[in-house]
Amino acid sequence: MKNFVYNIPTKVYFGKDQLCHLAESLSVYGKRVLLTYGGGSIKKVGLYDTVMKELNAGGFQVFELSGIEPNPRIDSVRKGAQLCKDENIDVILAVGGGSTLDASKWMAAGACVDHDPWDFFQSPRKPLNGALPLVTILTLSATGSEMDGGGVISNPETNDKMGRMEDILYPRVSFLDPCNTFTVSPYQTACGAADILSHIIEEYFNAEEGNLFMIDSIMEALMKTVVKYAPIALAQPDNYEARANLMWASSWAINGFIKAGKTTAWSCHPMEHQLSAYYDITHGLGLAILTPRWMKHCMKALPETTQKFAEFAVNVFDVDKNLPAAEAALAGVAALEKFLFEDLKLTSNLTDLNIGREHFADMAQKAVEGGTMKAYVALSSDDVADIYEACL
Ligand code: NZQ
Ligand code: ZN
Asked: Contact, 135 vs 174, CB < 8 A?
């Protein structure tokens, strides 16, 4: 186990009726607020009005940037960064899902430089020169962007989708009210659950020696939480307990706590980002399709990994611990598939999404960045292309 530093600078207001703390949270930074949001769900559900009431009562001068796309695009970031500069914005208030939050993080960074924000992503990546403070109101449990320093941005002109983590991009304050997720569609709820699960799986399966039993056990509990509560949220969208469990699991899956010093690269996320980049599919759906295939690839390529997959099966999906490891491991993958494709009703293959193999070679090259992905089981571009093939 490696040494690590744990420092989460995000203050969280969790639960109902916490927006009474919005004005005090923003005014620390100033009165000129850029309110960012997506395609309008916050207006439909009345959250926009609630937020504006608080902002007006607090005497803030509000500027707006709406229309941030799912798989947010660099053009939205460019617009937001420019608006921040033109209007001398003090603080950004992002209200939405991961896409709105991610785009807002890079607007915050883009506001502090003279160059194109895409230069933060393309090699050689330009360093940040500070960032405006960001406050968030989360409306979809999935990415953990509310409590991490990452943001993933798409550039449709180049078929690129790139992420980058920076400490300075952590939100200063995040408001997590499970009620704000009651209106999330069954499909987005399912995709969000698959994303949370994947963030944990990416850390749970890692090649480093000396994992902490304590962290592994917490990861298993987080995964069980998703498996238990996502179907309840689908059946009863306004079930507070289910939405609350998913929301807090979303944050803790990626806020650094379960990472605990591990430096191994992730596997399914780099592969999925290519799917989203080329086909603009929902991130969680791509992960759901890839993950079981990746698991089978790992066990075939490196049979020593079977034991860990058996532990996952037993501890997360209650597979019989007396089964031989290879059998238990496969039963675990089958249980995961049942959860994703039957319980959550997600599409199980790429063919049904009208995705063929024509870009697999290029996507695989991009996923491994022209080399080898040093992940749980190292992946060459041929390995990644094989995993994509298995997803057809
Ligand atoms: O745009 P609006 O109208 O708001 O509608 C959104 C959008 O259509 C809708 N929605 C959100 N909250 C809602 C709601 N609809 C009804 N009621 C609500 N309360 O849901 C749709 C999807 O929203 P989006 O923000 O795109 O979803 P998500 O939170 O899953 O974010 C996905 C993005 O985050 C990135 C993904 O790659 C993807 O681009 N990720 C960010 C990460 C991070 N910052 O650390 C890590 C992740 O691995 C991921 O890569
Ligand atoms: Zn993710």
From this structure: yes
